[in-house]
Request: fold
Amino acid sequence: MQREKTPLDKCTFKVTVTDDASPPLSDAQTIELSCIDTAPAYTSAIPTSPLGNSAQSFDVKCVDEDNDPLTLAVDATDTCGGTMTDNGNGTGTYAFTVPAATGTCTLTVSCSDGYLKTFLTGSVSLGRPSFTSTPPSTVPASQQASYQIKCVDPDGDSLTITGDATDTCKGTVADNGDGTATYDFQGPAAGESCTIALDCSDGASSAQQSALVKGT
Reply:
């Protein structure tokens, strides 16, 4: 039996029938069949939860119903810039880092059995920090005040909290290094207002918080 690598695979075989007469008589026929190659399938999925700023890895698993040898590779449409380590048995590891400049990229890998190729693709993104505390809207006029800040990061990156350039309350930030901080400032005069403006960064992306505070 011969299997040809063509867009429509074909199998050809020759059958010869011989009787037991003397002399024997025989007849031969060549039969051609179209063969179906089942495409490889993935048993792993691209991570959907936010990722950290450091190097990441994604375990790729691919199977083939026909037990053909499989080859894993990074597709040309991939924008995460990763590398594939192919174990040669349908499993591999894709190593990459989400670009900090964009915070997102498209991960695309391929699995080929030598006849058909399937693709696994999806968008992955960095986890971005966010503030979970709210600044006061009013404070006692012309008196010292403080605001307890809390910022969280979905993928556990270390956070740095600082005052933003647009801050007009002229306060100071004491960063505790664990996503919490204290903002100390003097409240504006009665009837006047100032702006608390803060930044929370995980080193690759940041969140800003801005609020108007009135002295009463």
About this structure: Confidence is low (pLDDT under 50) at residues 1-8. The radius of gyration is 32 Å. Residues 2-34 form one domain. The CA atoms of residues 10 and 167 lie 73 Å apart.
